[in-house]
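Schema walk-through. Below, the input block comes first and the output block second. Nothing else is stored per chain. Lengths vary across the set, and this one has 283 residues.
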Amino acid sequence: MSTVPMKLNSFNGIGWNQKATLTISVGPTYEEILLETNLEASQVKRVAVVLNGEEIYIMTGLELLMLETYKRRDDIKEQEMGDGFLVIPFSDITGKTKNGVRSSALVTEAGDNITLEIEIGDQDTESDVTHPSIQGWATVSPKQPERLVIPRIRPETMQATSTENEFLNLVSGDNVYIRRMHFEYGRIKNVSVFRDFVKVYECSTKLCFALAARNTRGAWKQTPIDCFHFDPTMRGFYINELFSTAHKSELKFSVETEEAPGSIRILVESLEVLPVAQKTLKE
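--- output ---
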């Protein structure tokens, strides 16, 4: 088998309004982490994967569900057998090629310090759950000789004090590529992208949903968070169709909304391609 499941170490500090942590063992390549838990997604206030002191993944429990729903993966949060699962994705199993699927896997190296942090919210007084429980599992593949990319999923915030707003603060560079950006506001009308004053993308919300549905994405389904999904990889080619953030002057996202929400949270899925991989990472 190319991938196998593996039980992770136990969490420390599990409790209501507490931060539970575990140390992730180095050696294997992590395709995904699954959290077996009796918590509702809304009670998982923050999930962070910390690689050598840097938070490369920052999400909420509801955002984890949103990502799975958008990719039309079966909802495994609620199951008849008891506790459900929340999935922290590294590899993207919806890709069309083996290299594409594994291009965002978390490769570990000797000397890495990797921790998983889960911030737990309040107890639901109407629930039968009196003590929170979390057990970590992972799908892993064999050790790789070196890390070529660092996957990231992190939030950004754009100011939206009118119905036409611009976002120019995306973390970018010649080696930074976007997999997806999820604009978490349900009344977006249109999104355009300009690279060095040239329009390279324009899409209405209606067209965005139609294209996603045609490419077997779930944007047309009810998701835990209403979003506009900027998804250059929706056809499943997770290397060739990444969106490069390289630019000389500016990279601008122009967002037209029905109302002025004040601000919009953007969950950004990206890859940082390390220098050793600039010429070797190919589809």
